[in-house]
Amino acid sequence: MKMLMMTTMQVHYVFLILLIFSISIASCSIVSSLEGPQIGINYGRYSSNLEGPVIGINYGRYGSNLPPAEAIPSLVTSLSIKHVKTFDLDPRITKSFANTGITLSLCIPNDKIPSLSTNLSEAESIIRNSILPYHKSTIITSISVGNEVSLLPQFSTHLVSAMVNVHRALKRYRLHKKIKVSTTHSLAILSRRFPPSTAIFHKSIGESVLKPLIRFLQRTDSPLMVNVYPYLAYKQSFPSIPLEFALFQPMNSPKRRRYVDPYSGVAYTNLFDIMLDSVDSAVKSLGLPKIPVVVSEIGWPTSGEPGEVAASLENARVFNQRLIEHLRRRWNKVTVYIFALFDEDQKTGAAVEKHWGLLYGNGSRKYDVNISPPI
Ligand SMILES: *[C@@H]1O[C@H](CO)[C@@H](O)[C@H](O)[C@H]1NC(C)=O
Ligand SMILES: *[C@@H]1O[C@H](CO)[C@@H](O)[C@H](O)[C@H]1NC(C)=O
Question: Which residue positions does the secretion signal occupy (predicted)?
Fold first, then answer.
């Protein structure tokens, strides 16, 4: 989770467009129940991921006193979750999920990207050592080549070739159908987000990195992975976006607000759908067909800097619970990985970075969310 690392200019820009957003939301303010607002746009061949929503969880390990690898699967299962995303390729973790029925999404560390881009043997050696011995008993579904590197030139220029080589290496071991190769992006890849139908990628990476990257994903039938944080958009634009809009407003609230995209006419009742549609629009703006999007990180913090009042146990509970309900209802199915399994007290940076867990380091729940039945 490095989304806070946006340039000042980007933050400024986001703020400006959010101001526009706040004006529109005021002007369409309170709308009595209209029949099912049309959510999302759909211009491509993928109308949905037919299987329904999948809810997984991120397992980050920058915490002191976290439980040992062997204890993780039962903690995950106790949350009624069956899908886990990690930030590395640690064989101890991969092994601990053997024969549990829990799927794993793994990640190759950023610093491997430059060498992977030119060295196919290096990619083969990673697959041979970190995947081949384990894939028969552990269900490995995807590998992210790096984490949120698309705006970092020292990695982004090598990113697509590295992904191609990892895919080739998987192919060599006939695992390429089973294990998808992708990479996670922060939403800072968008230079414009609002209105969602007008969203575009940063000029510096749109044509040069993201276009070939998305083409690779389409060719290999792999999803685009983005980290979507309504909390950060809410915070960066404070006080433009109503908190309830970021927290998925309750369905039955008489004060339910709508934001109508002035160009597409699509009505939104929550920030999450706006953020997802902005990704779709940016893909479209590159002249590419729609691609399935996996939300590789999403969540709400329980604590932050003094005065960061929206970061609270209650808001985190409400956000995650309503997110799950929203995903079950949403016509356009999407896979999300909640951030995160544990609080991570060793994270540096803003205080808020440490408090995204559903569980304390000792394994007890910080608050109750009901995810069952597991999906
Ligand atoms: C490529 O990777 C292999 C396997 O990791 C390594 O032995 C070799 O030295 C690398 N080649 C170059 C040119 O770095
Ligand atoms: C786990 O840690 C939390 C926070 O430090 C604490 O409130 C709770 O009592 C602990 N639970 C157990 C079972 O030790």
Answer: 1-26
Q: Binning pLDDT at 50, 70 and 90, where does residue 361 land?
A: confident
Out of 124, 244, 297, 314, the active site residue is 297
Classify domain 55-359 at the CATH topology level. Answer: TIM Barrel (3.20.20)
Tell me what pLDDT residue 51 has: 58
Segments making up each domain of the chain, as ranges: 55-359
What does the pLDDT look like over 203-224, one tens digit per residue? 999 999 999 999 999 999 999 9
pTM of the entire structure?
0.89
Residue nearest to atom 14 of ligand 2 (CA): 362
Tokens of residue 118, six digits: 């030119």
Instruction: Give the count of beta carbons closer than 10 Å to the beta carbon of residue 339.
Output: 25
Single out the catalytic residue among 35, 51, 122, 148: 148
Total number of residues shown for the chain? 375
What is the model's pLDDT at position 35?
Answer: 31
Q: How far apart are CA 274 and CA 266, in angstroms?
A: 10
Q: How confident is the model at residue 166 (pLDDT cuts 50, 70, 90)?
A: very high
The beta strands (E) that lie in the chain are given as 54-59, 83-86, 103-108, 139-147, 180-186, 190-192, 200-201, 224-227, 259-260, 267-268, 293-298, 335-338
Residues 6+ apart with CB under 8 A from 285: 199, 200, 201, 206
Give which of 209, 108, 223 is closest to 154, Cα–Cα: 209
Q: Which tokens hold the place of 140?
A: 């490995």
Higher pLDDT, 53 or 292: 292
For atom 3 of ligand 1, which residue has the closest CA?
122
Tell me whether strands 139-147 and 180-186 are parallel, antiparallel or unpaired.
Answer: parallel
**Confidence at 102, pLDDT banded by 50, 70, 90:** very high
Q: Which residue has the tokens 């089973």?
A: 178
Buried-state track 340-363, b at ≥16 Cβ within 10 A, e below 16:
bbbbbbebeeeebbbbbbbbeeee
